[in-house]
Amino acid sequence: MFKSSIALASASAVLALAFLSPAHAAPDEEAAKALMKANDCTKCHAVDKTKKGPALKKVAEKYKGKADAQSKILTSITTGPTVKLADGTEEKHKIIDTKDQKELKNLADWILAQ
Asked: What is the DSSP string of 7-52?
């Protein structure tokens, strides 16, 4: 009886700690901002206001709770799709100049965290 109580308590503690730990680390904000700056993303995007492109908060809101959110943003920043601008015109989205998947995923996660 005593052994099963200890095992149950240990399992409960491990399970509780698992829920306290984040599924993945928070995005590196400074690295994301540096990548955006290096690629002139701020020419069209700001965190909280619409410029030529949507505010990043609006992008995050659009994808909130969607399982494919990160992949949708990665597609937008790596394939150059045609996008509709705030003034109604369309143009090809700029492709981020890096092949580093960690940097790209960090940027996507940071955008989603806005």
From this structure: HHHHHHHHHHHHHHS-SSPPP-HHHHHHHHHHTTGGGTB-SSSBSS
Cα 30 from chain centroid (whole Å): 14
Inter-CA distances, 45 with 36, 51, 83, Å: 9, 6, 13
Nearest to 89 by CA among 114, 59, 52, 60: 52
Q: Using one digit for the tens of pLDDT, what is the confidence trace for 85-108?
A: 999 999 999 999 999 999 999 999
Axis-axis angle for helices 56-63, 101-112 (nearest 10): 90
Q: What is the pTM of this model?
A: 0.78
Contact 112, 70 (CB under 8 A): yes
